[in-house]
Design a protein that fits this description.
By secondary structure, this protein is an alpha/beta fold. The protein is built from 13 helices and 10 strands. Helix 5 packs across helix 6 and helix 12 packs across helix 13. The protein binds zinc ion.
């Protein structure tokens, strides 16, 4: 179908005539007889007229100084292969523009009955548009593990642990590396931050004892550092080596804490706390900036970041004043 010329070819006119007669035969017959079309007709609002045997929109612009095709656009039925072809042609001709653009472009010559719906039907099937603008299919999430949904346990009973950093801390003229230890409650999504001065067993045990003293009994800790033990220790990041040492295991056993490693190569198992490390990192980046802190400053900053992250809403914040205030880990 070629519409590049302003005047429709005879063949195209005949094709449109056939399509119109197939859907609006009664209306065309009435107009040919010289009478008005029936009240129940869907075309009544368009005040249709017959021009060169074609059904066109009558409208209120017979005196306007515009092109005849624009003044009385040809009516195209809502359904039909021909309508679909015309819409697809204009859509491709306009470099795959959207519904309103194509509809506006077509109005210079054609009036599609129920234009918006017809556009949606045809443009929704355009393969090029679907490929470029189509919605990305989301992966279906698996069921939450029992740790995440178990109720009746105090906060920080089941945790995920991870380390982040390092942070450079001033001591005299020297700069010393420190790390952050993040404990995330798998139930209430609250966090507890501790500072680890180095990556040794003693430093981790100290952090563990601090959380035990302040948050009460910890039942289980999950950690996703399996690869560090399975793979070559020298090649891989050795951040977590100390967690596998017997010293830590003995300490955990004495405190009644079960330590569970996620299987190797399953970083997605730790999504619950990796996500929160991202949030902590964002807050730290903003607050810390380029300034250098001493040890005391870093501890204070961690407490403040902890309070900020634990005040984040867990539920949707609505704009309706009658809705209850959003739930936060601090409230839980
Ligand atoms: Zn397209």
């Amino acid at each position: 179908m070629h519409l590049s010329t302003q005047v429709m070819s005879l063949a195209e006119t005949v094709v449109v005539q056939v399509a119109q007669r197939m859907t609006n035969e009664v209306e065309i017959a009435s107009l040919e007889k010289g009478s008005t079309i029936r009240v129940s007709s869907s075309l009544r609002k368009l005040k249709p007229i017959l021009r060169n045997g074609l059904l066109c929109v009558g409208g209120r612009l017979p005196l306007a100084n515009i092109a005849l095709s624009e003044r009385n656009p040809i009516i195209l039925p809502y359904k039909g292969h021909l309508t679909d072809m015309f819409i697809q042609y204009y859509h491709e001709h306009s470099n795959h523009m959207g519904i309103m653009y194509v509809l506006g472009l077509m109005r210079e010559k054609f009036w599609v009955v129920k234009g918006n719906a017809a556009m949606m039907r045809v443009l929704g099937k355009c393969i090029k548009c679907r490929r470029v603008h189509g919605k990305v299919i989301e992966q279906q999430m698996a069921n939450l593990p029992p740790d995440r949904v178990e109720s009746g346990k105090p906060p920080f009973y089941r945790n995920g642990v991870d380390l982040f950093g390092p942070f450079f801390v001033k001591r005299g003229r020297a700069q010393i590396k420190h790390w952050g230890v993040i404990f995330t409650c798998l139930n209430m999504r609250a966090i507890h931050l501790e500072v680890a001065s180095n990556l040794t067993s003693d430093s981790f045990i100290s952090a563990l004892r601090r959380i035990l003293a302040r948050r009460g009994q910890v039942g289980m800790i999950r950690c996703d550092c399996g690869t560090n033990f399975v793979g070559s220790r020298k090649v891989l990041d050795s951040n977590y080596e100390f967690l596998g040492e017997n010293k830590v295991r003995n300490e955990l056993l004495q405190c009644g804490v079960e330590f569970v490693f996620n299987p190797p190569g399953t970083s997605h198992f730790g999504g619950a706390w990796e996500r929160l490390i991202g949030t902590v990192g964002r807050v730290l980046d903003v607050v810390l900036g380029t300034q250098q802190l001493d040890y005391e400053g870093l501890c204070t900053l961690f407490c403040e970041v902890e309070a900020t992250v634990n005040s984040r809403p867990l539920t949707i914040v609505t704009s309706d004043s009658r809705d209850p205030a959003p739930l936060t880990p601090n409230k839980l």
